[in-house]
Amino acid sequence: MGVVFFVCSLLLIIFSTRGNADINTSSPLSIGQTLSSPGGSYELGFFSPNNSRNQYVGIWFKNITPQVVVWVANRDKPVTKTAANLTISSNGSLNLLDEKQDVIWSTGEAFTSNKCHAELLDTGNLVVIDDVSGKTLWQSFENLGNTMLPQSSVAYDIPRGKNRVLTPWKSYNDPSPGEFSLEFTPQVPPQGLIRRGSEPHWRSGPWAKTRFSGIPGIDASYVSPFTVVQDVEKGTASFSYSQLRNYKLSYVTLTTEGKMKILWNDGKNWTLHFVAPSSPCDLYGSCGPFGLCVRTSTPKCKCLKGFVPKSDEEWRKRNWTSGCVRRTQLSCQADFSTKTRGKDADIFYRMSHVKTPDLYQFAGFLDAEQCYEGCLGNCSCTAFAYISGIGCLVWNRELVDTVQFLSDGESLSLRLASSELVPNFMFINTSEEARKNDLEPQDVSGINFFEMHTIRTATNNFSSSNKLGQGGFGPVYKEKLADGKEAVKRLSSSSGQGTEEFVNEITLISKLQHRNLVRLFGCCIKGEEKLLIYEFMVNKSLDAFLFDSTLKLELDWPKRFDIIQGIARGLLYLHRDSRLRVIHRDLKVSNILLDERLIPKISDFGLARMFQGTHFQDNTRRVVGTLGYMSPEYAWAGVFSEKSDIYSFGVLLLEIISGEKISRFTHGEGKTLIEYAWECWCETKGMDFLDQDLGDSYCPLQVGRCVQIGLICVQHQPVERPNTLELLTMLTTKSDLPSPKQPIFALHTREDESTSIDVITVNGLTQSVIQGR
């Protein structure tokens, strides 16, 4: 009996596991048998969801518990008997037959008389192959269920009337199609859309080259795995994704509840990488037409600027679906295509950090200025947005599904009647008198607003005895509030920092938290007065120590090296680790503050710019910063990126090592600081470059390494400079360093103030006008 039992068990194992064999006319797949992909990642066979009595043919990840089914053949036609098999006919039809040989499910005829077979590929794709021509006659990747695997795609083909979508299981026991669907829209640019029945449920926002603009932070921690290919002329498009973070197993699925999820497996567990919708504001049109859903911890609806609830009664009941209506009629009437000029002309209110509305149209304008002018000149245009990676989008209908994010998102310019212009910084208007300097507390979240009388009292009415110093934008005072000392930065009317830079500084720094960044407590705005309240830095700025013949002695080499590393860590946080991805654009010694322990803190974010997702480069027609610290591509072409900050850091590093100012240093025959650093590195590996007042408190190898790093950072070509992560690795390890090329030495200048460079291009001729700031 034991021998018989062993033989029966062996036969069961042999016939239930067929390895990577094919399904052909003489070898069907029966209940109890499975077919594996060659690499062993996927398995095809019969399964019963959650131990139900119904049997389905499906594909799942092999040797993964609990079982994750990624495709089902007979979704709405289960096998209810104990016998069934999956076979293939000579005409290329893959058929599921019951015990009576009746067809339960079929792929349909492929119109071939040749011999065919079906096989499961390493991608998880089940294909039917013509044995003679090798042509693929049918594949599961073109007949998706609730899951998309790498190399499969959601797609549409308008001429052929095809729309490949994901549909969820009806329940966890029933794989038949549920009420939701995930599709790719034929808009330009396209976007992902989840429908509930025929109604929109969630949308991704338009595709912007490497990301979906309506999903904040979706690719903040990895290179975007998504690929979108759209051919407008042919009426086709596809959306697919690659493996995540080099993990072998990953998938996109649409759940029974209508959620799109991305998961990956580390060999032990599944990790949820992304889910949407994840907030009540993510639900399509939750605040109605011209409504704005504010995506905070307690989401709420409000009307867009210049609009009021259509039904006050419904809004009091927290039923926002009726939306909002315009409070003041526009001067530009779409019906008559006429527009009023002068003080009564329509204006545009600029909203930041938003998911732009649905029902957009792509306009082929070349730049943001043309986008603005094009919308202004079209009376039916209600809003516009110029989005990096897309270009110009315009809206000619009501604005639906607009969401306010805490960060990320895009800028949307909303058309309003001029009477809606209240004192506010967020307006675009050709009239200078329309640009006001007042700022309302509701315009910036997460920051304290102080009364002017409180600040005057704390600074003894801005007494000169309380003045700490003079910054690039105005004087800095010491004040003493109820909870201790803070520093007040008072912006002078002639400082050059306008409302835009001021708002930029408070909105950015209020959201940044790092031990090497200065902390902002609040601000105060009263008429022309604009003040920032920072944490008090008892040791003022780095330049006060570094360039003072007495104080510089307190900065021995170990302390200078600590400061260098601290600045690099702060820069890494700005570039890579914060949720905002910030380019500082004015990194210099006077913008490095020192606390009581001489810990460096990066300050002055008035010129900083924020990037989205994996986007790390931009350009500007108005170049602002400090001569000597500006990278070549920024100073003369307006291109700024992580690498332009790295250039500034390189200059800063050389200043800290030498104790000399970039703008005031000359050596020998008028050599600049960078030129002298190169000469010292070539001759003594940088030893002669060290501040001579430091004595013998230094480590020669460490100093020489820092000089070399400084020279690498100031390379002329951005690609030859390290990124911030590589920079910190260079400073904190003993890894081999690349040899720097001879830098292109900057022109010598004795001016130490920041500059504003307006780059004006006319007929291909670029002229740079440099002005003191």
Automatic annotation (TrEMBL):
PROSITE patterns with a match to the protein in the record: BULB_LECTIN, PAN, PROTEIN_KINASE_DOM, PROTEIN_KINASE_ST
Cited InterPro entries: Bulb-type_lectin_dom, Bulb-type_lectin_dom_sf, Kinase-like_dom_sf, Pan_app, Prot_kinase_dom, S-locus_recpt_kinase_C, S_locus_glycoprot_dom, Ser-Thr/Tyr_kinase_cat_dom
Leader sequence residues: 1-21
Domain named Bulb-type lectin: residues: 20-141
Coarse class of the protein's main subcellular location: membrane
Database matches in Pfam families: B_lectin, DUF3403, PAN_2, PK_Tyr_Ser-Thr, S_locus_glycop
Catalytic activity: L-seryl-[protein] + ATP = O-phospho-L-seryl-[protein] + ADP + H(+); L-threonyl-[protein] + ATP = O-phospho-L-threonyl-[protein] + ADP + H(+)
Ranges where the Protein kinase domain occurs: 462-745
Intracellular or extracellular location(s): Cell membrane
A GO cellular component entry from the record: plasma membrane
Membrane-topology annotation of the record: Single-pass type I membrane protein
Keyword Nucleotide-binding: yes
Gene Ontology terms for molecular function: ATP binding; carbohydrate binding; protein serine kinase activity; protein serine/threonine kinase activity; ubiquitin protein ligase binding
This enzyme's EC code(s): 2.7.11.1
A biological process from GO: recognition of pollen
Keywords for the protein's UniProt record, in alphabetical order: ATP-binding, Cell membrane, Disulfide bond, EGF-like domain, Glycoprotein, Kinase, Lectin, Membrane, Nucleotide-binding, Phosphoprotein, Receptor, Serine/threonine-protein kinase, Signal, Transferase, Transmembrane, Transmembrane helix
Family per similarity comment: Belongs to the protein kinase superfamily. Ser/Thr protein kinase family.
UniProt name for this protein: Receptor-like serine/threonine-protein kinase
Annotated source species: Eutrema salsugineum
